[in-house]
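Lecture 7 notes. Example A: sequence first, then its structure tokens.
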Amino acid sequence: MGAVVFVGITIFYKVLSSTLKQYPHPLPPSPPSEPLLGHVRKLPMENAHLAHMEYAKQYDSDIVYFNVLGNHMIVLNTQKVANEILDKRGAIYQDRPNFVLFDVMGWGLTLTFMPYGPRFKLHRSALQTGFTKTAITNYRPIQEDEARQGVLRILRRSGQFDHSLRRFASAVVLRIGFGVTVASDEDPYIKIAVNANLATAQGGNPGTALVDYFPLLRYIPETLNFSETLRHARKWSWAIQDLHNIPFAAIKKEYVSENSTANPSFAYNLLDKYRQNEEKGLPNHMTMHDIQGASASVFIAGSNTTYATTTVAILNLMLNPDVFKKAQAEVDRVVGSERLPSLEDRPNLRYIDYLVEETTRWRPLSPIGIPHKSLKDDVHNDMFIPKGTYVYYNTYAMSRDPAVYKDPEIFRPERYTPREEGGDGEPFLVGPFGFGRRICVGRHLAQASVWIMVATLLATTDISKPLDAQGRPIEQPIHFSTGLSSHPGKFDVVFKPRSEKALRLLEAFVGDKQ
């Protein structure tokens, strides 16, 4: 009872001090607030991206302000304002809120959720070095190998294509991050990835749980816990612990073995540097715990992004046969039918690049983004943004901005064709991978993985809707999950080998790797 009273007093003080305080400039436009509660009841629990789009229209502002129990929060609804605030003033907005809920779940040492400070700089530097646009070219053989295996599995078991995509996405990042090869569909590492993604996708939007604003609530006994999100975080923390512990334990055991056969990997390189520093008597800035957290970041970010984006790409190839045929024709023109596509073909397959970019625009993986936090007071267009403000960026609203995208609901890769070539010259959507100093360091790797999977599917398969008993295409309702990441629900697709030659090319490459 004492804890509840303390939280109540804290809320009252924070709300009172934030509402009575005088600011040198007006705050951004906002809905009417309520005494004590502020805008708590104005914040949507589901489909937040849609509600915030409406707020932006209602108040004719691309920045909308909310006071959440005394905490400041703004939502950015256009790429222009996100660029001006998060990119151009990135030094001010590179912090993260205190994601207590995700810390309870086990994400404490993951770069995505880490607050700004020396540890954040350390992790980001390590990950940036390993995943620059140049560095990821070393991983091309892994991506091509796993994509070809994945497509052959899809053709053999098309009813389980989502599992094959999950295996592909997990296998790529496990080989790159830990040097671990996924041996079968029943490999325990696949289950780890599935469980971790389930835990994260159903954990709610980051920074929206009551415990994020009042950290002491994390210690409330379960019998008094009224928060569904906190209950979920506690229930699923084992899944995130498995993700951090099991792959790292395997590579660490292999690394210290006298007869080590460990494959080169991101984790292996960090462990090797750690040992070399110890042998030379030099300080190790990254502890074993840091190496473990940084390696886990590669797994969850790369696996989830690649799986979800490839799934949405396949959905749109099925729903848009004209796009599918046009993309297939480009692959035929550049690659031919005597070999399989490779990442070296990418500069000559521009339409496939557009297709991947349109996939991330049409349905952004994280519709409302992961919030930044301001490190000091700021003013934008005479609107005051107080220090400590949570800054969300509504990627979905940006993707539907009629001032930027013509017919934004339509999946149309041609929209990116330059104007000098007769196209609309619309810009790629930046938001799906974040902004400023919090932009995803693995974005180049993830996009390359999606690209090679899509290119391999186009070269070797025909994709279509399932048919009913009368031979008519079955129209399926598609629903997307909400939360930290947005995935389409289960849908059926027909995959057929494009030709006997294409099937033989896949089988010859894969051999007995399956």
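Example B, a different protein, same format:
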Amino acid sequence: MSAFTLDVEKGLHPPSPLVAKFPSSPQDSSISLLSPALSRATTKGAGGQDSAVTLLAAPPTPDAKDSSRTLVQPTPPKEIPPLPLTKTKSKTSRMIRFRLWFNTYRKFYTLTVTLNFIGLVLAATGKWQYPRQYTGAFVLGNLQCAILMRNELFGRFLYLIVNTLFAKWPPLWFRLGCTSTLQHLGGIHSGCATAGAAWLIFRIVLIFIDYRHFPAVILTAGVVTTVAIFISLASALPWVREAHHNIFEGYHRLVGWFGLLSTWWFVVLGDSYNATTHSWHWQADGSIVRQQDFWFVIVMSIFVILPWVTVRKVPVVVEIPSPKVAIIRFERGMQQGLLSRISRGGLRGGLLEYHAFGTISKGRQSGEHYLICGVQGDFTQSLVDHPPTHLWTRQLKFAGVSNTSKLYKRGIRVCTGTGLGAALSTCLQSPDWYLIWMGSNQEKTFGKTISALIASLPPSQYTLWDSKERGGRPDVMKLLKETYISWGAEVVFITSNMGGNTEMMEGCKKEGIPAFGTLWDF
């Protein structure tokens, strides 16, 4: 029978709650952490009276030392069912909420839009002539940067460079900055798209001011391009994306493609017309190729098309452990921290419905990876009601925040429900990452495949909290803070719903625990 070792100062009550430390010898530790069971123990206080304390099983610290001052036998869970931790509520200050709201995403967006706005004002007032002469370069440069920030290949390249050069050795603040920058590249995407649209309006205004010098076809091309880009931007507004996701997918993608085609039309016409002589120059003298607008559009088109070249129809095996979840098995092992876009294909699905899910794999050598698809809409419901034998997917996966786990010596991956899909691979592929998974009726809901993957981890590397078995949710921050300290973690990655993410991010910010939460901007 193994025992907990409790460090108690002589003649003093220990602080509550206590974190039980495991012996450093592997032979002395056989406690399963399938869930952080609570046990009642008795110790002597300063007056010699018995004092009941609550012990919370915690993962081993990297430098834990043996201690034999007080040994407390854990209560078997079958005799006394573990109770949920008491949840303590505390009000979060406005400053903490503001710091979380004004995250790196919004900082990037603000910086990008502000710099472009300054240039726009200088150009509009005539104090900077270059943008007035080459407005198209500012329009297309911003739009190209916006597309680049959302390109899978470019993103994977950035993650590879950062993970290769800065793994574990730089100061923690620098590594946290790298993760934050990579996670919030969407701020540059949104900022450059907004700025590009603003420069486009400026370009159209300049043309209409001198409309007598331009043919109607150029004016028409400019207006059509502007309308298309603004519809694409409007469909990506947060409230549209969250409340009407299919509308976002359709308009942002299809109208965006139309906007790219109309941009080609506008650029070729504009670069082929001489407003001074009021004449077209269609000669094959290379004049268009020498224009920077032309090359901006070339690069934009390449980065738009490239991800679609990797789309393939692949065989899948679908497991339906419950009406709430579909577990999809794909061939091919994956590195951790990647997300996969899938579609059922067809004219509508192949163009409009590519949904992203975290991949679960033991590594590239495993030969397989899994997606956990929780039922939340028509697409995921169809996976349960009519399991497919094949799905369309982009073979070029895009990286998520977990991909930067290589930067840290030790960390915690906390998730709720189907968020396990984005979290489990990190812990499967690295013994330095600890898994905390909270959910309801976990094994019955998610099935034997997922349970077997978790069971392949050492018991000291994970905590499962089944709210149905335990009668409620834990005090998440108490559990997270104690695990963070005992595991010797440097950072916490969170994948949860909006409410759970907010609760944990606010709690971590309050406790000074570096944490990165869930994003809904892709």
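Note on Example B: Residues 22 and 60 are 6 Å apart (CA to CA). The longest strand covers residues 311-322.
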